[in-house]
Amino acid sequence: MYKIGIDLGGTNIACGVVDGINLVYKKSVPTGKITGTESAAEKLGAALSVALNDGGFSWDEISEIGIGIPGTVNTDTGIVEYACNVGLENSPLGDTLSKLIKKPVYAENDANAAAWGEYIAGSGREYKSMVMLTLGTGVGGGIIIDGKLYSGFNFSGAEIGHMVTHHGGRECACGRRGCFEKYASATGLKETTRKYMRENPQSIMWRIAGGIESVNARTAFEAAKKGDKAAAAAVNEYISDLACGIVNVINIFQPEAVVLGGGVANEGDGLLLPVRDIVSREDYARNSKRRAVVKLAELGNDAGIIGAALLRTNRKGD
Ligand SMILES: [Zn+2]
What we know:
By secondary structure, the protein is of the alpha/beta class. The protein folds into 2 domains: 2-117 and 302-309, Nucleotidyltransferase, domain 5, CATH 3.30.420; 129-297, Nucleotidyltransferase, domain 5 (2-Layer Sandwich). It is built from 10 helices and 13 strands. The strands form 3 sheets. Strands 3-2-1-4-8 form a 5-stranded mixed β-sheet, sandwiched between helices. A 5-stranded mixed β-sheet has the order 11-10-9-12-13, sandwiched between helices. The longest helix is centred in the last third of the chain and has 25 residues, at 229-253. 46% of the residues are buried. Bound molecules: zinc ion. Zinc ion is lined by residues 162, 172, 174, 176, 179.
């Protein structure tokens, strides 16, 4: 039997067929306009049909479905409490889809689903406790303690991106200033890059990016590799900001691993090694024999799909 994981996004519905812990087939279809629970369930059902059909699978081979949702999901009741990107509020989406397709359906917040995927099938495989940080448009967080996702009593926790690391700093959409994600996300990295470009009109970052509006999350890393001093300073500031939040997370949870995913993590060792240096100096438990490790995620964009498919698996090897 296969399991299906769905990553429900504002733009695309990505469906993946999972065999054991391995993704064996993946298909994305445009989300279209969702106008409530019924409409969302119909769109998901249609996306599933297309994926199974195109991949050559039959419904009989599918044991269950998991959905990662960009919002707050009450995992006790299965109710999607709030997911504004996909137009859902107090929505029994899982139950509605389950009735439609006659299979068990599990739902979870998408960042949690991605963390769960890395934990069961990726970089976190060998650990019992792990924190995942996804460095994308924002900073997504997922916390796993002793084999269980932790998201607070009201399912709104693990918002590590909205921990303030720069009191009074950059304005955040959440209403606070100086949130970690305003610095450590890809968006934060672009902002830091632009700051160094403005201060350094001679920097080759101007040429590499082709202008301040077309800066991306690779601009500073690329220019720094070519020896540009302003770019190296931007990269250092970014890494120092990122490591600050990682050390905070380690000091609170002391997880066995902190796993970094998302676009910026594609920088690989150029990002990881200097972050590890700072963590090894600043971790409160630096004199302990047992230390949290910082690692890169392994599953890329598939983590959320694999994690969603495996939501029922509440212990390893299940
Ligand atoms: Zn915030």
